[in-house]
DNA sequence: AGCTTAGAGTTCACTAGTTGGACATAGGCG
DNA sequence: CGCCTATGTCCAACTAGTGAACTCTAAGCT
């Protein structure tokens, strides 16, 4: 860090290389590390010793079969990461370790009208409870990922106006949570985190370019470009909900007319069914009814799918991702909504862009965002936090 | 390269660091290099000597004022790059050096119906002529960037079907030009190269995320994301011409209806004016007439602008670039087209995405693509080709 | 003019860190 | 039981960057 092109930076890079290799593979013998990283066996030997002394890595004295291979793995308590996700109606928290394992996960209902301070208090309590339950060491927290359902200003970390959590507008949730927990907190909006979650644990594994479409009370998209979340210079990339489908369509809350949201989001779609199906309908209920065969709900969901498909088609023409993952409650509808989406994409996207596209339902359901928050904490940590000695007390100074 | 984490790779990285610093700044003294790269003065001294011996860098013995500063700059003959651009009606070639200077540039008309082989022959001749004219050494060619007006398959380098150069479909222009010139050739389509050109030399300087909209016989966009061209996994990102504006609009050549292209591209727009302005109208003429006050042409151009603005609004909602640059003939219309674009963007994009957006005309006109091809060659070269000894005969082997 | 000063570039001894090869170890296999 | 093979460790060699001392030049001051 201090000296960008020096040997110590090289050494550091090699440390990270080894840590990353071990993380990706779960556990490796030193010889395997040497092969996959391209480093020499001697170097690996030194590095492993250093990491072991520092406590970031564990060496299980002998592996199962073989001659005398010692398998190296990230020590379970080398560091933990926490994901916190504020949704429309509930708060979710997950705790994971550096090996991408989820140790504990819990959600609880959240009062929509609560203030940011109250919400964050609740989050802090839930985090503490989970830490206690899993028995991990608070000092080992490497970072926290935080998801909020609204636009975050990249520079300042300020939450923009959000219809979902009205009491939160203008707050800086990352800073406040950081103050409460005393560890680095990284925020992002729920669509981006959903994308990250599905990318790392769900339907997006193995893909480099992905769009995660979340349909809930609004419609948003999280874009992953070349394996990284793309937020745009202003932090508002992915606003697929407000692309114009019909210039003379219904007026949208954003002030324009005929936005995708006015055809697909819960707050615009549910009223269509209220006269026939009662007023306290939720999207979840509509999906359930549709699966049970209710023709009205089926029709509405298919129409929503078609409109989303139009939006996705535009997205494909512009970005050409290799996969689109549908999240939110609507994803539960399965083919009832995916079929119309695919049909619409096939009709409106140029063939070469649509050809290698796969449209899949999210594999994580409502967990996508929390897990994405975990993934955010992991990725922001950047393999190097481990080495700073901030977590583990050892590592005798190589200034 | 061979040894990913070794000292020699570190050394190489430092060489590249220095080369890049010099390239970006034009010329620097050693002390300045040390400051900008973070390397120590001693290291810089060694590296500069090595580069000087290798011929990649020139040291002008004494700078103008000051004590005894020796300014370091890339040696003019360290390497040259060539840009070749096939347009709808002409072929352009440019020669530049590593210092981002354009040494020579020339264009000549091209027969639309010519075969790929004929076109490439012409290109080869023109390149040879320019090499002769500038007196550079053929052996110093570090790379060639090639622009073609059609979709390129990323994997194979095959040119997809293009309405502009019908004789070229299915050829692999990069390979063929490589065979003719004997140096690495990198292809891309004209919109991407236009984006790159404007990014490096034109209206996009200093910006990291940019969309270049090219309106000609079709409508395409080149996307620059985080400073790099974004092509998408399938290589067809940026097809803004085929996003749907009106589901029941005119049938487009792509098979869909109401694509942006059907409202904005020359082949669809010019017929509107043929009854009143004659049949052999070109976009260029329309723009000229509009500037001279012709109300019909003004109206058509404004309409085109409005439609482009709708497309750009969608693009902004999805990608949120900080700048949109308009290229192609249409850009010559200036405010006549930019005004309606901005108005449309303001109307259809969500405010937070539109707020920090600037919409500018391209600064390079028809040269954007060739210059982009130069830039492509430069960027693909990746600062390291210089060090391989393939160009300059010196550099006494470090394995 | 002469002295001082300050920044530029070079040299040198030192140090960090990787590598190849030699060596010890331990299970599988004949 | 001994050979073989692959693993992990140790050591000497080597590569490359760094700080400090040194030289050099021109500008500024007296």
Automatic annotation (TrEMBL), chains A, B:
<dbReference type="Pfam" id="PF00480">
    <property type="entry name" value="ROK"/>
</dbReference>
<dbReference type="InterPro" id="IPR049874">
    <property type="entry name" value="ROK_cs"/>
</dbReference>
<protein>
    <submittedName>
        <fullName>ROK family transcriptional regulator</fullName>
    </submittedName>
</protein>
<dbReference type="InterPro" id="IPR043129">
    <property type="entry name" value="ATPase_NBD"/>
</dbReference>
<dbReference type="Pfam" id="PF12802">
    <property type="entry name" value="MarR_2"/>
</dbReference>
<dbReference type="InterPro" id="IPR000835">
    <property type="entry name" value="HTH_MarR-typ"/>
</dbReference>
<dbReference type="InterPro" id="IPR036390">
    <property type="entry name" value="WH_DNA-bd_sf"/>
</dbReference>
<dbReference type="InterPro" id="IPR000600">
    <property type="entry name" value="ROK"/>
</dbReference>
<feature type="domain" description="HTH marR-type">
    <location>
        <begin position="18"/>
        <end position="68"/>
    </location>
</feature>
<comment type="similarity">
    <text>Belongs to the ROK (NagC/XylR) family.</text>
</comment>
<dbReference type="GO" id="GO:0003700">
    <property type="term" value="F:DNA-binding transcription factor activity"/>
</dbReference>
<dbReference type="InterPro" id="IPR036388">
    <property type="entry name" value="WH-like_DNA-bd_sf"/>
</dbReference>
């Amino acid at each position: 860090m201090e000296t960008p092109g020096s040997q110590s930076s090289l050494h550091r890079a090699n440390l990270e290389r080894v840590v990353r290799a071990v993380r990706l593979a779960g556990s490796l013998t030193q010889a395997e590390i040497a092969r996959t990283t391209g480093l020499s066996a001697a170097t690996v030997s030194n590095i492993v010793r250093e990491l072991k002394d520092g406590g970031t890595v564990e060496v299980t004295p002998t592996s199962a079969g073989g001659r005398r291979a010692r398998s190296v793995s990230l020590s379970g308590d080398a560091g933990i990461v926490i994901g916190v996700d504020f949704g429309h109606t509930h708060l979710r928290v997950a705790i994971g370790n550096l090996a991408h394992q989820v140790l504990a996960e819990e959600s609880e209902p959240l009062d929509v009208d609560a203030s940011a301070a109250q919400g964050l208090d609740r989050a802090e309590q839930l985090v503490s409870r989970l830490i206690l339950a899993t028995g991990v060491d608070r000092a080992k927290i490497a970072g926290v990922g935080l998801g909020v359902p609204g636009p975050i200003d990249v520079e300042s970390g300020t939450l923009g106006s959000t219809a979902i959590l009205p009491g939160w507008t203008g707050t800086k949730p990352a800073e406040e949570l950081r103050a409460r927990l005393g560890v680095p907190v990284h925020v992002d909006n729920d669509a981006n985190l959903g994308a990250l979650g599905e990318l790392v644990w769900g339907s997006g594994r193995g893909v480099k370019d992905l769009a995660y479409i979340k349909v809930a009370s609004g419609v948003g998209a999280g874009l992953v470009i070349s394996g990284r979340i793309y937020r745009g210079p202003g932090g508002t990339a992915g606003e697929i909900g407000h692309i114009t489908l019909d210039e003379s369509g219904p007026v949208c809350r954003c002030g324009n007319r005929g936005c995708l949201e006015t055809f697909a989001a819960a707050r615009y779609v549910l009223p269509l069914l209220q006269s026939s199906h009662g007023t306290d309908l939720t999207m979840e209920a509509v999906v359930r009814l549709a699966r049970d065969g209710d023709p009205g709900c089926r029709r509405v969901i298919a129409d929503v799918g078609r409109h989303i498909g139009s939006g996705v088609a535009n997205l494909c023409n512009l970005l050409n991702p290799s996969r689109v993952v549908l999240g939110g409650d609507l994803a539960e509808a399965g083919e009832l909504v995916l079929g119309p989406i695919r049909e619409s994409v096939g009709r409106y996207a140029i063939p070469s862009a649509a050809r290698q596209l796969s449209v899949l339902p999210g594999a994580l359901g409502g967990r996508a965002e929390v897990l994405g928050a975990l993934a955010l904490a992991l990725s922001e940590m950047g393999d190097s936090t481990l080495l700073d000695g901030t977590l583990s007390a050892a590592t005798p100074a190589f200034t």
